[in-house]
């Protein structure tokens, strides 16, 4: 055999696509706890068509990237942009604290008002009950005094009223 027979020319070769192998590719690792990444990694969701709506919505909400907006680096020459960023964050925090204080004061005043109101209502109810009992006692004494003056007449009235009561009971049974 000649050496020319062993050599193949590029015209004799064909390019054939190699069959793709299933590569066991691992997803990228999530960032470490002390990472300064701007976006957190969430693994991709499995087949969403097989899950119900609640699970889909939960997964969508969990996979939303979290943006960290207070990333001030430790560069040597911090410029004026970092100061403006700091000032803005400080103002937002002061506004948040002021809103919390105002909300606390409002709730405190409302609680005090309700407490004073309950005390006033309780005192008013006690006074009303005391006056009511006095009126009832006075009315009772007046009835007793009247019954003592007309002792004989009242017995007749009692007999008549008891007859009326029996008639009314009979009427109720019939109805």
Automatic annotation (TrEMBL):
One of its GO terms (molecular function) is protein kinase binding. Residues 91-128 have a biased composition (Basic and acidic residues). One of its GO terms (cellular component) is nucleolus. InterPro entries: Prkrip1. Residues 69-175 are annotated as: Disordered. Residues 161-175 have a biased composition (Acidic residues). Residues 129-148 have a biased composition (Basic residues). This is PRKR-interacting protein 1. It comes from Escallonia rubra. The lineage of its organism: Eukaryota, Viridiplantae, Streptophyta, Embryophyta, Tracheophyta.
């Amino acid at each position: 055999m000649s050496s020319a027979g062993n050599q193949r020319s590029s015209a004799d070769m064909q390019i054939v696509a190699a069959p793709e192998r299933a590569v066991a590719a691992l997803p990228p690792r999530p960032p470490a706890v002390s990472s300064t990444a701007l976006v957190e990694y969430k693994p991709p969701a499995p087949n969403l068509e097989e899950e119900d709506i609640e699970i889909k919505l939960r997964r969508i909400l969990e996979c939303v990237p979290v943006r960290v907006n207070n990333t001030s680096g430790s560069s040597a020459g911090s410029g004026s942009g970092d100061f403006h960023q700091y000032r803005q964050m400080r103002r937002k925090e002061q506004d948040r604290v002021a809103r919390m204080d105002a909300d606390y004061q409002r709730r405190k005043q409302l609680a005090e008002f309700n407490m004073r109101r309950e005390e006033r209502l309780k005192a008013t109810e006690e006074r009303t009950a005391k006056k009511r009992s006095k009126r009832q006692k006075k009315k009772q004494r007046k009835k007793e005094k009247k019954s003592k003056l007309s002792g004989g007449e009242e017995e007749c009235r009692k007999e008549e009223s008891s007859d009326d009561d029996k008639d009314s009971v009979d009427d109720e049974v019939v109805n």
